[in-house]
Amino acid sequence: MGNQKNPDDKPVADAQRAHWQATYTQHPQMYGMEPSEPARHAAEVFRAAGAGTVLELGAGHGRDALFFARKGFTVHATDFSATALEQLTAVARESGLADRITTTVHDVRDPLPLPDASVDAVFAHMLLCMALSTKEIRAAMDEIARVLRPGGLLVYTVRHTGDAHYGQGVDHGDRIYEHGGFAVHFFDEALLKSLAQGWKMHRVDAFEEGELPRRLWRITQAKR
Known about the structure:
The protein is an alpha/beta fold. The chain has helices at residues 10-26, 37-48, 63-70, 82-94, 134-147, 189-195; strands at 53-57, 74-79, 101-105, 119-125, 148-159, 170-173, 176-179, 182-185, 199-209, 214-223.
């Protein structure tokens, strides 16, 4: 095990914020413009549930937010990288989607800048498994529940403890490991189940993404 640290320390998360800002600056549209598979799944379940408004947390440069907008949803995209959101906004203007997408620079450790019960659906691809402590993840989940309308859907993805990078690199404690400059909180089943308390769980799907490949869970659940 590496040097144990308190994952609530601001320096760890703040360093990650700076790292992502620099990464988006150096590698514009680093994930390409094709939507992720979790976003394709989310669009289907959101549409089937009659959702019209989607909040995407950790939208990055917007490949999934733009996809949701093209599918007819009204999208509020947040990310802690202003650079990434500027890239998203530019593409939205060029694509004629600016009227369907709003953006807000937001750190998920802070309360969401939205009223109670104001969105139909929330999507977060690998945001909740960033350099967040378990306490911060729980607080973020409470905020998601607050802004969702009753019956509203949440689709989120996280890397889990079966991933090849789990236990590798710098150990920050609380199952947070930093590898290649990126810190990840790897979820186990106990955390997944505890975060679903008070929600109606629809399904948990295991999938892989990328060249490593990264091993993730995709969770679909509804606010009671």
